[in-house]
Specification:
By secondary structure, this protein is of the alpha/beta class. The protein has a single domain (about 10-100, about 120-220), classed as CoaB-like (Rossmann fold, 3-Layer(aba) Sandwich). It has helices at about 35-45, 75-85, 130-135, 150-160, 205-220; strands at about 10-15, 20-25, 25-30, 50-55, 65-70, 90-95, 100, 125, 140-150, 165-170, 185-190, 195-200. The protein has an 8-stranded mixed sheet, sandwiched between helices. α4 (about 150-160) links the parallel β9 and β10 (about 165-170). The two termini are about 30 Å apart. Bound molecules: cytidine-5'-monophosphate (C5P). The site of cytidine-5'-monophosphate has 15 residues, from α3 and β9.
Length: about 220
């Protein structure tokens, strides 16, 4: 068994996409598979953490020893996190939360009409879950993800500061074979004053390396 570097720590994670309903049969979503978040949940449980995984709709099985809470929308994910986060030492926001949701959910299926070739959807901003966690007094050690296609470092550092994160893991989703839906990924991890490159590997190995850094930084941040 791996060294129990997260023994005694409670870790809350979000994973997967969110689904934003338009009507009873349609929604807006994204291509997140949940693989990175589920790999982190599995690895954290192996390292001895007590893990709660708040998951959007995915087709993955719950890792051994992990408590799973299923949600669909960003608002549901936000509520599920805020209800539980004060009982946790570490929060990792791995979910690809939809930034906007339809302003109204139609109670009936939206009908196609003969006289209209165009339709305009009005969207409203969703709550930023990790920023809400980052704004808490006595917040847990908070880790975010940034999926970018250009200016990866600049956007990651901006998010680290703006969302009051302790650490951010950035991936370049424009590179083939990594990021969304892929089995492999590469990350650059940033925190105040330093960084670490985690080279391309399978998501479970990457999760273990990221959690080694998290355990290390968590302990320095909590040291007297
Ligand atoms: O700003 P951006 O969406 O790129 O930030 C990504 C980070 O913020 C991820 O950790 C993601 O889980 C989190 N996030 C969130 N709630 C949102 C949007 C993003 O928790 N509404």
């Amino acid at each position: 068994a791996p060294a129990q570097t997260l023994a005694g720590l409670r870790l809350l994670l979000t994973a997967g996409p969110t689904r934003e309903a338009l009507d009873p049969v349609r929604y807006i979503s994204n291509h997140s598979s949940g693989k990175m978040g589920f790999a982190l949940a599995r690895a954290a449980a192996e390292l001895g953490a007590e893990v709660t995984l708040v998951s959007g709709p995915v087709t993955l099985t719950t890792p051994p020893g992990v408590t799973r809470v299923d949600v669909e929308s960003a608002e549901q994910m936000h509520a599920a996190v805020m209800e539980r986060v004060r009982q946790h030492d570490i929060f990792i926001g791995c979910a690809a939360v939809a930034d906007y949701r339809p302003a109204q959910i139609s109670a009936q299926k939206i009908k196609k009409t003969a006289d209209n070739d165009e339709m305009v959807l009005q969207l409203v901003k969703n709550p930023d879950i990790i920023a809400a966690v980052g704004a808490l007094a006595n917040k847990p050690f908070t880790v975010g993800f940034a999926a970018e296609t250009v200016d990866v470092e600049q956007y990651a550092l901006d998010k680290l500061h703006r969302k009051r994160l302790d650490m951010i893991a950035a991936n370049d989703v424009s590179r083939a074979g990594q990021g969304f839906n892929a089995d492999d990924n590469a990350l650059t991890v940033y925190w105040q004053g330093d960084r670490r490159e985690l080279p391309l590997s399978d998501k479970l190995s990457l999760a273990r390396h990221l959690l080694d850094l998290v355990a290390d930084r968590y302990r320095s941040s909590r040291a007297p």
